[in-house]
Design a protein that fits this description.
alpha/beta; 4 domains; 20% strand; globular
Length: 632
């Protein structure tokens, strides 16, 4: 039996349909990722499940007694109450009593008096009467597991720590289903990997929205896509979804083209006049009317954003040179003995925990913040364009059109002058949104508007501070492609590991105590180099992942080519057939799981099929790794 079920659920705002008779089931222990473009209605679907938003039609069924916790995308709570009070507030009714007891106990630690002791005693009796001690212990346990300071003021925490507190608020409910909306937004990489580990061990069902591809790859056991009002289930991992979705869109485009061609032919026929209205052709006329209605109801996929960047004049070969730079604030070392040389065309990623000084490092490199000691030399003919993660450069009271180019109606992109309205269409802003004030835009829309504003400026040095927040995957991939082909220089602060891997040529990593290490390649390359360094310092030889997993040996030994043993050769010869068999079983299980009736079978059968699918996928990965190891 599933934990929740949606049947024929519909939801629309005005003429815009978000959900069109959608069905959904979520079973125990599933980790389901909900994907789709910005504005498709993913957050609204979560609110429908949680009961915060009523559906226009259809039914929402939850297993009796089931508990749901929902962590929304935006951190709306900004009060001066303590972390303990926020977390205990996740327990309706009894939470206020637990908070009052905690507050009285803390007060007595600092100022013990008879009135305080009596109040604490009264609260103890109330907790005992309400069987609240077990719940109070649950609050303390969750605070400890998430490493939260119970007495800290919630409003003083960073965005990442506030999200961790709100996650704790949801977890104290001991939910059967945990719903997370963009949980990695504003988290640094350390916090993201912590959240991944935590969610992998979570015993309940997980339904989450995320555009962080590395996060989705590691967690999701099934992908649910919301596209043009329809929900589609894609069993398997994220990469399976990407491949099969591309095939589906290609098939859809081919079918639509054939349909449109037939409709055009019938329209030409009907315009012939009297011959089309003869009695024996009335059926064909009725068929044409049906085709017209079918075409009218078809919801075409919104086009992709088209990103172009106004490139400035060529900068000098040297962009920035730093030599033995040191900087400290109030006795805290931010940068220690840092040296680097950035040349034209370099794409530099900057990685480190929130608040460690990444933005400060950029200001030092640009000459905006003088160091305490050391030397900074900036190159010639630099034109800097800055993407601010706080979006402070967007004035909330101006319109979308006015925000792009200081109110000018024209922009120049790569020597070609364009009207702002047409330029904004490339960033998926329809005509009716151009006169809307910036304050009414969603997070994703503000990010796209900031990109439009940034790319309209002539620049040969791009500085981008967390540009990926709130962007859907398609826009992310287009931005990646644009930056990879950018001829200027890029300084990129990001916690999106896949984005870093795909874009940057080298990475600056804050490694503690003000030390900034420089590594060739992206985030994964840094991890690999760090592991090599650790292995070298401990004196232990490292095995490649494939060798470590399978217990085999590498293809070379002591610098000499080694011939495979008879046993290894037999294994290599058998692997293609084994892989083919596993791939066939994987395809069969995926097809079975995509059937609408899959989650209506007995729960133990559903769990067994999903477990087998996961096992087959893991075994395939091991076979691929073993094949690569043997062939090398």
């Amino acid at each position: 039996m599933p934990l929740l079920r949606l049947e024929k659920v519909s939801l629309a705002f005005g003429h815009h349909t978000l959900l069109d008779e959608v069905d959904l089931e979520v079973g125990r222990s599933e980790r389901v990722c909900l994907v789709g473009r910005n504005g498709e209605g993913k957050s609204s679907l979560m609110r429908v499940i949680n009961g915060e938003l009523g559906a226009d039609d259809g039914s929402v069924w939850l297993r009796p007694g089931m508990r749901i916790a929902h962590l929304a995308q935006d951190v709306a709570l900004n009060t001066a109450v303590s972390v303990f009070d926020v977390v205990a507030g996740g327990l309706p009714g009894i939470g206020q009593l637990i908070s009052a007891y905690h507050e009285a106990a803390v007060r007595l630690e600092h100022d013990s008096d008879a009135v305080g002791l009596q109040k604490l005693s009264d609260l103890q009796h109330e907790l005992e009467a309400a069987n609240g001690w077990q719940l109070e212990q649950r609050v303390e346990t969750v605070l400890s597991r998430l490493k939260l300071d119970s007495d800290a003021a919630f409003s003083t925490l960073s965005g990442g720590w506030q999200r961790r507190v709100l996650l704790a608020r949801g977890l104290v409910q001991d939910p059967d289903v945990l719903m997370l909306d963009e949980p990695t937004n504003h988290l640094d990489i350390e916090a993201i990997t912590w959240l991944e580990d935590f969610m992998l061990d979570y015993p309940g069902a997980l339904l989450f929205i995320s555009h962080d591809r590395a996060f989705v790859r590691r967690l999701a056991t099934r992908i649910i896509e919301l596209d043009r009002g329809q929900l589609t289930s894609w069993p398997g991992n994220y990469d399976d979804y990407v491949r099969r979705k591309a095939e589906q869109l290609e098939t859809e485009a081919r079918h639509n083209a054939l349909f449109d061609k037939k409709l055009s032919r019938e329209e030409r026929w009907i315009r012939q006049g009297i011959k089309a209205r003869r009695t024996r052709n009335e059926g064909r006329v009725r068929a044409l009317k049906a085709m017209r209605e079918q075409r009218r109801q078809r919801r075409d996929r919104v086009g992709k954003a088209r990103l172009q960047l106004e490139t400035g004049e060529l900068s000098g070969k040297l962009v920035v040179e730093a030599e033995d730079v040191n900087l400290a604030f109030a006795g805290n070392t931010v940068i220690r003995e840092f040296s680097t040389t950035i040349l034209r065309g370099d794409r530099i990623g900057i990685v480190g925990p929130n608040g460690i000084g990444k933005t400060t490092l950029i200001r030092v490199l640009l000459g905006e913040q003088p160091p305490d000691s050391g030397r900074i030399r900036c190159g010639t003919r630099l034109q800097v364009a800055y993407f601010d993660q706080q979006r402070d450069s967007l004035k909330p009271d101006v319109t979308v059109m006015e925000a792009v180019n200081e109110g000018s109606q024209r922009v120049t992109i790569n020597g070609r002058e364009r009207h702002v309205a047409g330029y904004l269409q490339d960033f998926l802003f329809p005509g009716e949104r151009l006169q809307s004030p910036v304050s009414t835009l969603s997070g994703g829309e503000r990010n796209r508007l900031l990109l439009a504003r940034l790319f309209a400026q002539p620049a040969n040095l791009l500085v981008m501070d967390e540009p990926t927040n709130d962007l859907d995957v398609e826009t992310l991939e287009l931005l990646e492609e644009l930056l990879m082909n950018y001829s200027g220089t890029l300084l990129l602060v990001s916690h999106d590991r896949a984005f870093l891997d795909n874009v940057v040529t080298s990475t600056l990593v804050f490694e503690g105590e003000g030390r900034v290490g420089e590594y060739v390649g992206g985030y994964s390359d840094w991890l690999r180099q760090r592991r090599s360094t650790l292995a070298a310092t401990t004196g232990k030889p490292r095995k490649s992942p494939a060798v470590a997993k399978t217990g085999g040996t590498s293809g070379k030994q002591d610098g000499r080519s080694r011939k495979l043993s008879y046993r290894d050769q037999r294994e290599l010869d058998a692997l293609p057939q084994k892989i083919e068999t596993l791939e066939a079983e994987q395809a069969e299980l995926q097809e079975k799981a995509s059937n609408p009736d899959f989650y209506r079978q007995a729960e133990r059968e559903t769990i067994a099929d999903l477990a087998r699918l996961e096992a087959v996928t893991a075994e395939l990965e091991e076979c691929y790794a073993r094949w690569e190891a043997l062939e090398s």
